[in-house]
Design brief:
Radius of gyration: 18 Å
Shape: flat
Helix content: over 70%
Structural class: mainly alpha
Number of domains: 1
Distance between the termini: 35 Å
Largest sheet: none
Length: 182
């Protein structure tokens, strides 16, 4: 089974490369490119769900959070595809779909904060509260450091600010993961 999935993943990657050379930045290229990315995302989510079902305790929760993060990415990509293929434009700087691309880090942060000694199959109410708090923190970081300041910026400056906030979030997650392992 893993060999078939590897072949499927490599096929999606190969088709994506071919699609870029054949269709370029055309509407058809956008459609096929986004469909391939969504397919890869769906495959990754399915693999995370499968890993979660085979696991217990910490690993089960970890794979569900990673799968949720990838599912959010797929939903954001669907929205992006709608804008590019149907509306013939990229999503506006303050679009909800741009926000969804940035929210996946919250799920990775929750995965980092999981209790590795947890073996219970019951839902831990403390973890649920921590997860809600993490989502709120990421929402307010996004709103306070990107969304509100971007209202007064031009499109280029808003895009730079979005990427800066996203890179800072990822850097903080990597540092948190490294500290967690110490």
């Amino acid at each position: 089974m893993p060999r078939k999935i590897s072949i499927l993943a490599l096929t999606i990657l190969g088709l994506h490369i071919v699609e870029v050379f054949i269709f370029g930045k055309s509407i058809a290229g956008s459609l096929f490119g986004n469909l391939l990315q969504i397919s890869a995302c769906a495959l990754a989510v399915a693999m995370c769900i499968g890993a979660s079902r085979r696991s217990g305790g910490f690993a089960r929760s970890f794979w569900m959070l990673v799968g949720a993060s990838l599912a959010i990415w797929g939903i954001a990509d669907l929205g992006w595809m709608y804008y590019e293929v149907v509306l013939h434009r990229v999503p506006p700087e303050l679009s909800m779909f741009r926000f969804l691309f940035d929210t996946q880090e919250a799920f990775f942060a929750m995965a980092i904060l999981l209790d590795q000694d947890e073996n219970s199959k019951d839902l831990d109410f403390g973890f649920v509260l921590d997860a809600v708090q993490m989502v709120l923190v990421f929402f307010f970081v996004y709103a306070g450091l990107y969304y509100v300041p971007s209202l007064a910026l031009d499109a280029h400056a808003a895009a730079i600010r979005e990427y800066t906030v996203m890179i800072a979030e990822i850097a903080v997650l990597l540092i948190a993961a490294a500290l967690r392992e110490m």
